Amino acid sequence: MVTHQDQKSSGNGQERLLILREKINGIDAQLLDLLSKRQEIATEVGNIKNDLGIGIFNMAREAEVFRRLTSQSRQHLNKEAIRHIFSEIISAARSVQQPIQVAYLGPAATFSHQAAINLFGHSTSFISAETIEDVFSLVEKGVCQQGVVPIENSYEGSVNTTMDLFFKYDLKICAEVYLRIRHHFLSKANQMNDIKHIYSHPMPIPQCRTWLKANIQERPIIKVDSTALAAKMASEDDKSAAIGSRLAGLTYGLNMIAENIEDQPDNVTRFLVISKYCAEKTNKDKTSLLFFLNHKPGALFNSIEPFSRRNINMTRIESRPFKIKSWEYLFFVDIEGHSDDDNVSQAVKEMAEHCAIMKELGSYPEGGMVWD
Q1: What whole-number distance in Å separates Cα of residue 306 and Cα of residue 289?
Q2: What is the model's pLDDT at position 167?
Q3: Residues 286, 174: contact at Cβ < 8 Å?
Q4: What is the crossing angle of helices 111-120 and 79-97, to 10°?
Q5: Ramachandran class of 142: left when φ > 0, alpha when ψ lies in -120 to 50, beta otherwise
Q6: What is the pLDDT of residues 284-342, one digit of tens each?
Q7: Which of 3-12, 232-241, 316-325 has the least mean pLDDT?
Q8: Within this chain, do residues 222 and 251 fall inside the same structural domain, yes or no?
């Protein structure tokens, strides 16, 4: 039996809810007004940049904005939420200054696409490329101002194609972004029993081995060129499923049969943003270099010793076969610091004296937090 007290409490609760909703409506109106004013200022900034011949996309400035704002995170607004919100606000500001086009390794809803959206926001125009080399080509030809390419995965290692293309193309790295790789089991079906086969890119299969072994039993896995293509094919086949991202599931209208099926929750892929220009200095930067050495005793030691002497931290070194010469190798190095730093500049000059070929691939802000 509902008592008078229960009715009174219910009535008070409804009244309180209406009051809180009105407060939210008022805050939303204020936010909209402030965002409109921000867009007006952004338009003025764009006009000045155009007069000065300055590019619209400024990764250094945006990185500083993110660091400043995320350092002010509070109880009900964490760093990740702040980054996602302001990524879209900054993207909208760019769109009124001068729309930019960004190439990514497609098709739509790949992890490269997701990384591009996280960094550039939805107000950006994205172009899907069939291959990593197509991304480089679109940027080199000026069709796109930036391109997003994978460079390494925390479990699978480096993406060799990307490394090779940095020697072939004269483009710069202007940013990096880290994306946590979440794999989901996607299907038009509502339950596992209705699924007869699975589509997947080869890479997620070993990354989800434990879950697949326990759940898919004898169902065959058909390997395809990308996780996005797997999701697309699953959307056209009611008896199939795909291993892919949340974005792929949303893009192709698939149900989440199981979430986060990867064996390792800290599976992260690093993506690079390529452009014709380097990024400005932020005081928290990386510099990437490519070099080739002659066969001499101590050649590698002599080339990288200037970093140690100047207290410069080398965060990555890797070699790749130099395809122009058999049994010769290109080396790739990432160091902390910007090429405009005196110690980095002097070390790179000294390093060049020991190299047959050396190419500065760019200085850019450190990626910082991992995007989910």
Answers
A1: 14
A2: 92
A3: no
A4: 80
A5: left
A6: 999 999 998 877 888 899 899 999 999 999 999 998 887 777 667 889 999 999 999 99
A7: 3-12
A8: yes
**Residues of 118-149 as b/e, b for ≥16 C-beta within 10 angstroms?**
bbbbebbebbbbeebbbbbbbbbeeebbbbbb
Residue 370 domain flag: no
Distance (Å, whole) CA 197 – CA 184 = 15
Greatest C-alpha distance within the chain: 93
Three-state SS string across the chain, please? CCCHHHHHHHHHHHHHHHHHHHHHHHHHHHHHHHHHHHHHHHHHHHHHHHHHCCCCCCHHHHHHHHHHHHCCCECCECHHHHHHHHHHHHHHHHHHHCCCEEEEECCCCCHHHHHHHHHHCCCCEEEEECCHHHHHHHHHCCCCCEEEEEEEECCCEECHHHHHHHHHCCCEEEEEEEEECCCEEEECCCCHHHCCEEEECCCHHHHCHHHHHHHCCCCCEEECCCHHHHHHHHHCCCCEEEEECHHHHHHCCCEEEECCCCCCCCCEEEEEEEECCCCCCCCCEEEEEEEECCCCCCHHHHHHHHHHHCCCCEEEEEEEECCCCCCCEEEEEEEECCCCCHHHHHHHHHHHCCCCEEEEEEEEECCCCEEC
Model confidence over 125-172: pLDDT tens digits?
A: 999 999 999 999 999 999 999 999 999 998 888 899 999 999 999 999
Given a cut of 80, is residue 184 above it in pLDDT? yes
Range of the domain at 169: 100-181+267-273
Q: Are residues 135 and 160 in the same domain?
A: yes
Residue 347 within any structural domain of the chain: yes
Q: What is the CATH number of the domain that holds 120?
A: 3.40.190.10
Please give the tally of structural domains in the chain: 4
Of the candidates 330, 323, 329, 328, the residue with the CA atom closest to the CA atom of residue 291: 330
- Would residue 133 count as lying in a domain? yes
